[in-house]
Amino acid sequence: MNTLQKEQIIQKQTCQIAPQGYYPVNAQPIKLQGVQKLKFISYNVWFDQFNFVERNQELRKLFLKHDPDFICLQEVTQYFIQLLSSDKELCSKYYFSSSFVQNYDVLILSKYPISFYCRNYNSNQGRNLLVGVINVNEVNLAIGTTHLESLPQNKEFRKYQLQVIQDELSKYPESIFMGDLNLETENESSYLPSQYQDTWLELHPGDQGVTFPQIKKRLDRVLLKQSNLWKTTKIEVIGKEPIPLYNTKKPGNLYEVTTPSDHYGLYSEITFIGKK
User: Fold this and answer.
1) Does pLDDT of 111 surpass 50?
2) Among residues 160, 221, 217, which one has the least CA distance to residue 196?
3) Where is the Endonuclease/exonuclease/phosphatase domain positioned along the sequence (predicted)?
């Protein structure tokens, strides 16, 4: 039986990661000036060991191809971090919100050495909200990622966890959060905080935007707080192509995952529309 995790806030240790080891970073408040655009990836990378190394290689290629400012990941294992650490190009570009995860967890890679903390939910599955804050054009912007409670029977957990996110991010004037929200029905989508825009629906109304192909659902979302300063200008589904292994190999069955993860990822851009 799962043990219920209690609510608490835990400070993370930002670090740089390299093949030689992990190096703690003395994170400082970062102020960016004259920023016109910020880029993000949100990706549930799938903790399963199936084709793990090959999938990790393709995920890293996607990260480097899109070159986002922040990469928000879910279902990260310690082995996943170990494989990331072998990529010199990736590690030279990004700071990690932590060098250690328990079981599978959330992780943010950031081009900036900002500090991070997580707010644990009441959860039977060890879920939490991971937050980093950066000052952009004189205003603080919080970036959050989460993996809400899974399974259809846990919709009340998800409703409560979304309320925790709303309460936590209300501390900041501007915010964006993203991740695997596990919202399977339109009724559950009504739990989303009303002051946030579902960025996929903003730019692709009428497009289903599937991110979990096994059940053809849009489980993964990017939500931007309604603002006079920031506007979503791009969001697209990524990671839909099979990994190279399947150029010469046929899937063992109809349901075999051939892509970099069992989820697709989301790449998004927000543009500054306030006065610089």
Assistant:
1) yes
2) 221
3) 41-263
Predicted confidence (pLDDT) per residue in 66-86, tens digit: 999 999 999 999 999 999 999
d(CA 191, CA 52): 34
Beta-strand ranges (E) seen in 19-83 are 21-24, 31-32, 37-44, 70-76
**Separation between Cα atoms, residue 64 and residue 87, nearest integer Å:** 10
The percent helix, strand, coil of the chain (3-state, each to 5) is 20, 35, 45
Strands 128-136 and 31-32, bridge-based pairing: parallel
Q: Which CATH class is domain 8-272?
A: alpha beta
CA–CA dist 166, 80 (Å, integer):
29
At 93, list the tokens.
């570009």
Is 189 exposed, middle or buried (CB count within 10 Å of its CB: 0-12, 13-18, 19+)? Answer: middle
Whether the pTM exceeds 0.90: the reply is: yes
Euclidean distance between CA atoms 79 and 82, whole angstroms: 5
Q: Can you give the residue ranges of every domain in the chain?
A: 8-272
Question: In Å, how far from its chain's centre is CA 158?
Answer: 17
**How many Å separate Cα 77 from the centre of its chain?**
14
Q: How confident is residue 28, by pLDDT bands cut at 50, 70 and 90?
A: confident
Which residue reads 């009724």 in tokens? Answer: 187
